[in-house]
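Support case: D-glutamic acid complex. Customer-provided input:
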Amino acid sequence: MNPSSPILLFDSGVGGLTVYDALRKLLPKAPVIYAADLAGLPYGTKTEAQIAARVAGLLGRMTERYQPRLVCIACNTASTIALGMVRDVLAVPVVGTVPAIKPAAALTRTGTIGLVGTEATIRQAYVDDLEARFASDKRLLRIAAPGLVAAAEAKLRGTTVDPAPIAEIAARLAAIPGGAEIDTLVLACTHFPLLAEELSQAFGPDVAQVDGAAGIARRIAHLLEEQSFAQSGPNRFVVTGPLDGAKGLESALAARGFGPAEAF
Ligand code: DGL
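Agent response - structure generated as follows:
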């Protein structure tokens, strides 16, 4: 394995940076290329066919160009829809991101878990399956929160987040029968941990927030444990579509050790 071969982290936008942050704690020397499909953002409002075609096509081209040692789909929406298909077409290991229902089920005391995700994620059979396997004796209440993706994108670009839409999601979830019992919230979209403080204000400090970032980072570190790393410069942040899409992210990227955004 070429020690400068990167890990490719892929998301529709900046959400996967929550996985990147967790990964850097475990593998600070690993070269990373982060790819944000800003031209396709948001995924959550697209159809399964649109998402699968886009993600498989882009990851095929990106893998050819960047020759990564491993690809991580740092996006719940893309993973719950296209993970199997991407694994079928790529010759490198592919790690996905799936809603953290298993750890949430281990954590809840009331037995009622809220799951906040994109519209596309919450309707996936993949999620039904995780619920059946790990939370069949719990109550799992799902809600779509598409507005939070845009809020997280804006927050990372330095904009103050409007608390009203987040409070509205908390109220809608609480209004579902049993919703008042929620003590654990699955953040089933990689963008949402970027709004942890705002979510905590809306849901209250006693509701635990669970996401998959640390678990995914551990999985990647485990798969690469025998490998050596050599960084030849700062990590790379590439975007699809106009480079202008990355405007405002300069300080968030610099703080994470990325060079200036590049066009894919
Ligand atoms: N970050 C993505 C996820 O984890 C989706 C955001 C979007 O493009 O809708 O689901």
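The longest helix spans residues 48-66.

Case will auto-close in a few days if no follow-up is received.
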